[in-house]
Amino acid sequence: MTFILLLEQLFNGLQFGVTLFLIAAGLTLILGIMDFVFLAHGAQVMIGAYAAASLTSLTGNFFLGILLAIPITFASGFVLEYVLIRHLYRRDHMDQVLATFGLILFFNELIRIGFGPAALFSDLPDLLSGFVYILPDTPYPMFRLVVIFVGLACALGIHFLVSHTRMGAMVRAGANNETMTAALGINIKLLRRLLFAAGACFAGVAGMMLGPLSAVEPGMGEPLLILSLVVIIIGGIGSVRGAFVAAVLVGVVDTMGRVLLPVILRSFMGQAAADGAGPALASMMVYILMSLVLVVRPTGLFPPKG
C-alpha cells in the first residue's frame, strides 16, 4: 500500500462524500425543516441522471445537456410538490412513508417505459476526460476533481442560501412557527414548494455527476438514499453543516475501508476471502459509525439550534 494510492483513494472518498452531500442536503431540509418523510428522494437522483444523459445524447454537447437538465429537475420537484406532496404535510409519517414509497415504484416503472431497462452511458468531453497531476507522477481523473469542486460550490451555496438570505430566514421562521410566519404575509405554501424543488434539484445534480462515473439505470438512486439517511442521522436532522461533515466522513470511511480492509485481512486469511470480506466490512463500518454517534450524541454531531 503506497502513499500515492492512499492519496488517490482519499480524493475518491472526498468525491463520493460531496456527491452524498448533494443528495443529503435537500433531504435533511425536507425532513428537518418541513418535517416530511420523503423516501422517493433517490428517484430525483435518477431523474437528474436520465435528464442529463438523454439531453447530452440529443444535443451532442455534455455541458449543454447538464445546463438543460438542471431546470428540468427543479421543475420535476416543483410539480411533484404541487400535485401530491402538499396534500400529505398534515398526514402522519406512516402515510408519508407509504405514499413516497409508492412514488419510488412509480418513477422506476416510468423510466423503464420511457427509456427501457437497459442502462445509459454518458461520454465525457475531451476537456473532462483527461487527468490532473495532484502531485508529481500522481495523475487524478479530471472529472472526479470537477465533481469535488461542484460539490463544494453547492455546499457553500446552500449554506449561504439557508443562513444569509431573506429566503433562508423565511424558511427557518416557517419551520419554527408556521402560523405566525403566514400571519406576517409570507406565502408558506410557495416557500415549501420552492424548498422542495431546490432539494430535488440538488439531488438531480448529484445524479448528473454520477452518470458519467457509473451506469444510468432505473433504481440507481435507492442505495444512495439509504446512505443519505445515514448521513443526516450522523450530522443531525435539519443541519446543512452537519450533513456536509457527515457526508465527507461517510464517503472517506467507505472508500478507505474498501481499500485498506482487504489488505489488513490478507495478513491472516486467504486473498480470495479477504477480497470478499473487505468490501462487506467496509459497508458495515458506515453503520457502525452511525451507531457510535447515536450512542454519544443522539441528536447528531451538529444538531440545528432549537
Describe the structure.
- With 306 residues, the chain is mainly alpha-helical.
- The chain has one domain.
- Helix content is 73%, strand content 3%.
- The chain is built from eleven helices and two strands.
- It has helices at residues 3-32, 41-59, 62-83, 93-115, 142-164, 166-176, 178-183, 188-210, 222-235, 240-265, 271-296, and strands at 131-135, 138-141.
- Strands 1-2 form a two-stranded antiparallel sheet.
- Helix 1 (3-32) packs parallel to helix 5 and helix 5 (142-164) packs across helix 6.
- It is globular, with a radius of gyration of 20 Å.
For the termini, the CA-CA separation is 46 Å
From the spread of the alpha carbons, the general shape counts as: globular
- Secondary structure class reads mainly alpha
Rg = 20 Å
Number of strands: 2
**How are the strands of the biggest sheet laid out side by side?**
1-2
Helix segment count? 11
Strand content: under 5%
Tell me the major beta sheet. Answer: 2 strands, antiparallel
> On the 0-100 scale, what is the average pLDDT?
85
Measured as a percent range, the helix fraction is: over 70%
